[in-house]
Amino acid sequence: LVFRYPKNEEDTIKGISFEIKKGEIFGLLGPSGVGKSTTQKILIKLLTDYKGEILYKGKDLKSYGSNYFEEVGVGFEMPVHFSKLTAEENLNFFKKLYSSTIDVDELLKRVGLYEDRKKKVSQFSKGMKVRLNFVRAMLNNPKVLFLDEPTNGLDPKNARIIKDLIKEFKEEGGTVLLTTHLMNDVDELCDRVAFMADGRIV
Fold first, then answer.
1. What is the Cα–Cα distance from 36 to 32, expressed in whole angstroms?
2. Which CA distances in Å does 115 have to 9, 83, 85, 87, 136?
3. Tens digits of per-residue pLDDT, 164-190?
4. Fewer CB atoms < 10 Å away: N or C end of the chain?
5. What's the rounded Cα separation, in Å, for the pair 113 and 127?
6. Is the whole-model pTM more than 0.90?
C-alpha cells in the first residue's frame, strides 16, 4: 500500500503490507505522524487515491459500495458531535444512516452516560465525548471496528469500561484495528501488533 497526499512531495505510506485476521485485535503502533491514521482512513474509504491492493473478505475494497459501511464501526481520536444536540439526538441522527442498529440504552448505561443522554453535548467533558464516540462506533452492530486512541482522555475507571467492551466485541467474533501510543492498552488488548515508522512497517 502506497499513499501520497496531493500537495506532498513524498509518500506518507511507503509500501506497507499486512493482514488482519478475522476475530483478532490488531494493533498499529508508532509515534505521531508515521502514517497510522492515514492507513485507517484508507481502510475506511475516506482516502481512495492509493496504490496497491486492499482486500476485505477476499474482495477488492474498491468494489464495495455503501454496504461496506454497514459492516464497519469507526471511532476517531477527535470525537465529532453536533454540540447543540443532546447525546440522544446525536445518536438518533447517526442511526438513520444505517439499515440496522442496536438498542443504545444498554450501551449508554455501560459507559455511564445514560443519565446524561438528554444533555447537550456542548455540556459534556472531553471524557464524556470520548465515551459517546465509542457508543456511536458500535451503533450499527459492526463486524469490524477501527479505533484510533479509544481510551485517550479517559480516567482509569472509564478506560477500563471501554477496554472491557472492546474485549467483549472480540469475544463475540468482532475484528478490531487499534491505533494507539498507550503501551498499556496494547499489552492488554492486542493479539498482534505492527510498528510503523516513517510510512513503513518496521
1. 8
2. 50, 17, 16, 10, 17
3. 999 999 999 999 999 988 888 999 999
4. C
5. 11
6. yes
